[in-house]
Prior knowledge:
Elements: H1 2-26, H2 34-45, H3 58-86, H4 93-97
Helix pairs in contact: 1-2, 1-3
Amino acid sequence: xxxxxxxxxxxxxxxxxxxxxxxxxxxxxxxxxxxxxxxxxxxxxxxxxxxxxxxxxxxxxxxxxxxxxxxxxxxxxxxxxxxxxxxxxxxxxxxxxxxxxxx
Length: 103
C-alpha cells in the first residue's frame, strides 16, 4: 500500500509540474508564470477548478482535458487501492453473497 501511495503522489506531482510548464509555454497569454500554470494544474487535477484561470488556446484546452482525465484517474486508483485494502474478502465471504439455491 505504501508503494502504491508513493507512486500516486509521484505521478500526481509530476503531472502538476509538467502541466504547469506546458500551460506557460503553450498558453502564455493566459499564464504569465509557471507558478500560475501550476496553480491551475493543481486545481484541475484535484477537480476543484476555481475558474480564476482558464486555458484560452486550443493547445491549452487539450492539455486541460488530459489533466482532468488524469485527476479522475487519480481518484479512481486511490479509491480502489483504499477499498481493496480495507474491504478485503475473507474465506467465508462468498457464503454471504451467493444468490440462489445453496443446497
